[in-house]
């Protein structure tokens, strides 16, 4: 595992004129949109001809796009895999065509020789950091949590659930009363939170929301306010991504904690591809990006100002 600092990457040479196919999941969240923007910027700065395909969150569209890249004979392929399974066949086709594949921001369950490397955070750790924050915040008070899961079958949804459960294990005062996917979107996050509020005494019995990303948390905040409750005080809000809008909510006292996920996964991907395409240097199978907790104590207004220009 190679760990990365959050410092601005020094742009590596070696990819000028290369053709890279990028199968992106879609634009389901602010973080996803930022990853797309930063990938396109990185490609431009490095002289890469980026072929971009948006899959509208459907795996079959991603597989079709990858087959198209193989047919075009691209030099390399980036995939942000919407779900963790079902990739073996198309990755074997890329391997047969001797086209290296780099996974961005989500892992898959497949033989490691089918991809060059995966550039992702440690998503179990992200869930643990979120859970540890809540454990410290509630002390031994009884706390009923509702969970907004990411896309069903995606590695972040599986791993962030696991990490949060590890954090609250042994703290019997904290229980996850309801858990459902909000598919990483604001709209669905709001809808599911409305159903949780209805089911839990108008929301009065809910102590906290754990959302697998900030966009679902922002949707939940709207639902909580429409139910006449105060997000951030009546119901604590903890989520992941650290997109600018969660810091606006924090500055208003309407969100409490978020775990940062860098949207610049393409920089490290292009760096290792440059080396691999030059002389076959193979990177570690996992390039891990950092995770950092932010709370209301971290000057959220200033963080919002600093982040809002970074591709979101
Ligand atoms: C996590 C990434 C997730 C983000 C969401 O690595 O795949 O997908 O947390 C995005 O915002 O939709």
From TrEMBL:
Periplasmic binding protein domain boundaries: 21-278
Keyword annotations of the record: Signal
Localization annotation: Cell envelope
Chief location: other
PANTHER family the record matches: D-ALLOSE-BINDING PERIPLASMIC PROTEIN-RELATED (PTHR46847), GALACTOFURANOSE-BINDING PROTEIN YTFQ (PTHR46847:SF3)
Family stated for the protein in its record: Belongs to the bacterial solute-binding protein 2 family.
Name listed for the protein in its UniProt record: ABC transporter substrate-binding protein
Organism of provenance: Paracoccus cavernae
